[in-house]
Write a structure and sequence with these properties.
Layout lengths: L6 H6 L5 H19 L7 E6 L7 H7 L2 E8 L2 H8 L7 E5 L11 E7 L7 H14 E12 L3 H12 L13 H9 L2 E9 L6 E8 L4
Parallel strand pairs: 1-2, 1-4, 2-3, 4-5
Antiparallel strand pairs: 5-7, 6-7
Helix pairs in contact: 2-3
């Protein structure tokens, strides 16, 4: 049985290199979300799934007019860290499984950074479904995920070899797996890769269909 990532340990001692990679990711998120948000000139409601102790709230609030920013995660320790911080927009939290969303409030924009790869294929599909269930019709869903480019493979191999790899359940994803599900829920409006952080990340944004 594959081990799960110890998120408590991760939040207690986040690797130093993440300060660099998070700044690059934050700038990319600002550009992508500003370009794909459903109505850039109006206040938007945002839901970040898997966002315990999120690093991106204030960056996104500078790119969009945020009326509410809601963070969903199962990790109580990470949510506790988040709740002690101050932000430039209203922030609420919810301890819940990202796969369970039926009957919950819907948002203009739902996104996650590095969440959907921590599951087997069926679990990844369930988490993607959770994104779309939390998104209002006509809203935007954005997911980022590691994808197995040569740099990703090389960096991960070296980290595993030296005992520095902390994500035993991470499963790098091909675009066709993610896009295959997203196309069943709406129109893909953005697709790109972020190579600058080494562990290459794919970005897929989808406009949720108005009716199914």
């Amino acid at each position: 049985m594959k081990l799960a990532t110890d998120w408590d340990a991760y939040y207690r001692s986040t690797p130093g290199y993440t300060q660099f990679t998070r700044r690059i990711t934050a700038r990319r998120l600002q550009r992508v979300l500003a370009a794909t948000a459903p109505h850039q000139s109006q206040p938007v409601s945002i839901c970040e799934l898997g966002g315990a102790n999120s690093s991106f709230i204030d960056d996104i609030a500078t790119a969009l007019n945020v009326r509410r920013y809601h963070v969903v995660d199962l990790n109580a320790y990470g949510l506790g860290l988040l709740e002690r911080r101050q932000f430039s927009c209203p922030v609420t939290t919810e301890r819940a499984d990202a796969r369970a969303a039926n009957g919950l409030q819907q948002f203009d924009l739902v996104f996650s950074v590095g969440l959907i790869e921590h599951f087997d294929p069926a679990g990844t599909a369930d988490v993607l479904r959770g994104h779309f269930e939390r998104c209002r019709p006509g809203g935007t869903v954005l997911v980022t995920f590691p994808t197995p480019t040569p740099p990703y493979r090389a960096i991960r191999y070296a980290a595993e070899l030296t005992g520095q790899w902390k994500f035993p359940d991470e499963r790098p994803l091909l675009f066709q797996e993610v896009e295959g599900f997203c196309r069943s829920r709406g129109e893909i409006i953005h697709r790109s890769s972020n190579w600058l952080i080494g562990l290459t990340q794919g970005y897929v944004a989808t406009r949720k269909a108005l009716a199914r």
